[in-house]
Amino acid sequence: MTLLAVDWAFLLEKFILVAIIILASLFVAMYETYAERKIAAWLQDRVGPNRAGPFGIFQPLADGGKLFFKEEIIPNSSNKFLFILGPSLAMLTAMMTCAVIPWGDKLELFGRSMSLQVADINVAMLYIFAVVSVGVYGIMIGGWSSNNKFSLLAALRGASQVISYELGMGLALISLIFITGSLSLKTIVEQQMQPGHFWNIVYQPLGFLIFFVCALAECNRAPFDLPEAESELNMGYHQEYSSMKLGFYLFAEYVNMFISSVIMATLFFGGYALPFWHAADHANWLNVLVGVVALGGKTCIFIFIFIWIRWSLPRFRYDQLMNLGWKGLIPLALFNMLITAVVVLLQNH
Asked: Where are the alpha helices (DSSP H) in the chain?
């Protein structure tokens, strides 16, 4: 009976944690749209949203309501099942990546030690790569099922882009694995918290730069937003979509940007760790709170950089995009991997 009670309590903890993470991710994605418009206005010497609530803070709610109440349109010439499956798959895979991220230290509550991580698996980064790889099918299915030549061309661009830049990202990650010896995000964070150990950005600055550029391409963010090149392909792969199916595609992009920022903060900038903050010197709840806020702060910095880049750099041509991935980032990542392997080998001997 005791074992059964513990199992139910464990399941309840995980259910509550999953619900909080999903709601928080959707909330952040929603207000990323507000930040995008406000930062763009600031960079372009404009005001930005300022009508819906004080300083326009209710603008994301107004935009969401507009999408929700718009008419659902499914083209007669489309494959209706796949047309609906595309945005659903894009949104599902975007949310699934949250499961392996450590959002904070263990919380001692009601006599139990609760982990702020849904699943601590020893192949967490492989899991994320696998889910992200499935996510490209959402773009491909949506573009193909629309039966629109512009959508199909944009979907082909998106698939090629993701495949090309995943290679560079994976090679950059291998260099990091040489140093950490683990694919578990929890282990990587704990290593960066050890005395005398710096954040991984100190050991892998080139690997971080490659990872960051590839993350921009994976999220279809400017200057790598070729699948959504409005000036070339009307609206890209979601041209035929309306209402919440379009909303799912847009939300998935912002959720991916949020998760990419959290992953980069976790891998290279200590995750929920803070320098000169020792957990043993503080109450458990305070330590957990500071860790969550620290991870949130690092994530917000990356989100700001994502948005800043979008409104500062022009879009690449498609041939430039492919050349950068195959002839620039992949050879550079291989070079970084070889140098890292040599350094680790010399240290071990």
From this structure: 2-43, 59-69, 80-96, 124-145, 149-180, 185-192, 200-203, 205-218, 230-233, 243-268, 284-310, 318-323, 330-348
Task: Supply the DSSP string of 150-165, one letter for each residue.
Answer: HHHHHHHHHHHHHHHH
Mind listing the pLDDT tens digit for each residue in 297-309?
999 999 999 999 9
The alpha carbons of the chain give a radius of gyration, in whole angstroms, of 21
Which residue type occupies 259?
I
| Three-state SS annotation for 306-334 | HHHHHCCCCCCCHHHHHHHHHHHHHHHHH
CA distances, 273 to each of 61, 155, 297 (Å)? 33, 39, 11
Q: Which secondary-structure segment (H or E) carries 181? A: none
Give the separation between CA 76 and CA 57, rounded to whole angstroms: 38
List pLDDT tens digits, range 215-267: 999 888 888 888 776 666 667 788 888 888 988 998 998 999 999 999 999 99
